[in-house]
Amino acid sequence: MIISHPGRVTDRITLLGRYESCVYLVDGGRESMLMGGGMAYIVPDLLEQIEAFGIDELKIARICILHSHFDHCGAVPFLKKRWPWARVTASVRAGQLLANPAINQSIAEMNRRATERLGRGQSESALGYQFDRIVIEETLSEGDHLVCGDLRFDVLEVPGHSSCSIACYMPEQRAMFASDAVGLCHQGQYHPTPNSNFDQYQQNLERVSRYDIDVLLLEHYGAYLDQDARAFFPAAIAAAKETRKLLEETYRRTRDIDRCTKEIKEIFLKRSGDSFLSDDVRTMVAGQMVRYIAKTMKIE
Question: What are 102-116's pLDDT values in tens digits?
Fold first, then answer.
C-alpha cells in the first residue's frame, strides 16, 4: 500500500502536508514529534490538518530535520514560533550548514519562489510563514537513540543525497524515516537522488535496504507499507545503477560538464514530468551529479 495523501499511516504515524512535500507526526504517547520540515508553502495545509485531525500541539516536543535542503526545512521557522517549546533537531553537519547566513538566505529565496509558483503569496503574508532562519538546538550522530515518549529511534548517518542526511529507524513498527536518502518514486518512475556524492548514496541505499522495513516514510510523494516498502529498495538500487551508467556514458561522450548537464537535465525532465522543483533547481541538481561523476572518471 502507498499512502500519498494526508492521514493515518500507522497507529503511531500520521502523514501531514502535501503529496509533493510530506512531513510526519509521530505519536509517542505522552509526547509527539514532527519528522521533516517540509516547504514553507505547506503551512496552510498543516494548520488545516492540525484542526481536522485533532492534533494536540502542546504535545509536540521536537521538530526533526532529516537534511537541510530548502524543501525539507522551509516550514520550520513558522512552526518553531508556533511551538517555541519544541526542540529543533538535525545532524551535526546540518547544524553547521544552517548556521551559515548565506545558506539561510538561499533557502529563504527558494521557498519564496516556490510559494509564488503555487500562488500562495497572499496566505504567506497573512500567516507570516516566510522563511527567515533556523537555529538547531539538538544534534544527532550515527548510533544515537532519539526518544519520543515510549518510542525509540535509531539514528543513521546516510550522506549521499546531501552531506548532512540522516535517517531514523523505529524498531517498534519497523519504520524507516528516510527523507531523500533512498531516492523517490513519482508516477511509477524511480528517481535516484545522489546530489552530493554518488558513491555514498549507493552505499547508504544498500545499507538502509538491509533493515527490516514494513513502513518507509519519504518526504516526497508519500509513504510505503508492507510489500510496497520492501519492493521499493530493489527498484531504487537498480535505478541508481542505471542512472550512474547514463551519467558516465553521457560524460564520456560529451567530455564537457555544461553540455552533459544540459543533456541529463532534459532526460530527467522527460522522466519526471510535472515537479515541484523549478527549472533552475533541476539544472543545479543535474550539474551536481555530473560534476561528481566527472571527478570520479578523470577523463583526460
Answer: 999 999 999 998 898
Residues 13 and 59 in one domain: yes
300 belongs to a structural domain: no
Same structural domain for residues 263 and 118? no
In this structure, are 156 and 257 located in the same domain?
no
Q: Which domain holds residue 269?
A: 241-294
Residue 219: Cβ within 10 Å count: 28
Residues 230 and 247 in one domain: no
Residue 207's H or E segment, with its range, is helix 198-209
Strand intervals (E) in the chain: 2-3, 7-8, 13-18, 21-27, 32-35, 60-64, 87-91, 138-140, 145-148, 151-157, 166-170, 175-177, 184-186, 189-191, 215-217, 223-225
Q: What is the CATH number of the domain that holds 66?
A: 3.60.15.10
Q: Would you say 89 and 139 are in contact if contact means Cβ atoms under 8 Å apart?
A: yes
Give the CA distances from residue 138 to residues 60, 135, 240, 257, 292, in Å, rounded to whole numbers and listed in that order.
Answer: 15, 9, 32, 39, 31
Segment 265-286, tens digit of pLDDT:
887 777 765 566 777 787 888 8
